[in-house]
Amino acid sequence: MEATPTAPSRIKILEFIEGDPETWFDVCESTFLIHGVTDSEMKFHLLISALPSRITVKLRDVLRMQDAKNKYKILKDRLLSLYGLTPHEAFKALVALPPLGINQRPSELFSSMCALLPTGEDTSAWLFKHMFIAKLPQSLQVLALSSNYENLLQLAIVLDSAHSSGGSSYPPPSSFSNTVTLDHGTGFVSRDEIHRVEKPRSQTLCFFHDKFARKAKKCRQPCTWTGKDDRPGNENRVDSV
């Protein structure tokens, strides 16, 4: 059902986003849909009236067009040309994006990377997937490379949980035996580090009990130590900390 047209004076246009004009146009299109604006010339004038003067001074030729049939498209193409990233610039920005920050969630990093993808590009592409994983801490790389999830967004959300808990609680990976990783020279974890995570018991013990077992002098939660050293080769020993 089409929305009832709203008086132009009551339509509020989002402030222009110089760093991301494509997203700005997406938001404006949603605004037009909500307010029932379908005429392209009306869209043109609504956007022009909302743009700051530092932008409109660069659009004098567009503003003075008299008989152009699609002013809105011309305006959109011009703003994207002036302020949007070329595919090569977007790729360089993607490569230069810093690794996961201390207070940043993997899904936030994923979203930042997606924002730099040209329209129509697939986030499941091999290069994009491994660029995302390479920007994660090594403990999360282990989980990401050892797991089989439907898409990268789903994986990023799962990694959020592991990251917020300090990596102490991982969902069960689908398969470790077929994991293919690269060496440290590429930014990925090594196969040895993958194997260390394969030990299910060490995932539930704190560092001290995993390393020193019954000789540990400290314990850090979460830890499931019960006094029985059931690490490989020690299953029958019982002692207390």
What tags apply to this protein structure?
mainly alpha, two-stranded antiparallel ribbon, elongated, disordered C terminus
Polypeptide structure, described:
By secondary structure, the chain is mainly alpha-helical. It has three domains: 8-83; 87-198, no CATH class; 202-238, no CATH class. 45% of the residues lie in helices and 2% in strands. It contains twelve helices and two strands, in the order H-H-H-H-H-H-H-H-H-H-H-H-E-E. The chain has helices spanning 21-34, 40-50, 53-56, 60-63, 71-83, 87-96, 106-114, 126-134, 138-145, 152-164, 191-197, 207-212, and strands spanning 228-229, 237-238. The protein has a two-stranded antiparallel ribbon with strand order 1-2. Helix 2 crosses helix 5 (71-83) and helix 7 packs antiparallel against helix 10. Mean pLDDT is 79; it is low at 167-203 and 235-241.
Structural class, please?
mainly alpha
- Estimate the mean pLDDT confidence: 79
Kindly provide the radius of gyration, computed on alpha-carbon positions and rounded to a whole number of angstroms: 27 Å
Helix share bin? 40-55%
Strand content: under 5%
- Our measurement of the CA-to-CA distance between the termini, rounded to an integer number of angstroms, reads 69 Å
Label the overall shape: elongated
- The number of helical segments is 12
As residue ranges, the low-confidence spans are 167-203, 235-241
Q: How many extended strands? A: 2
**Whole-number count of domains:** 3
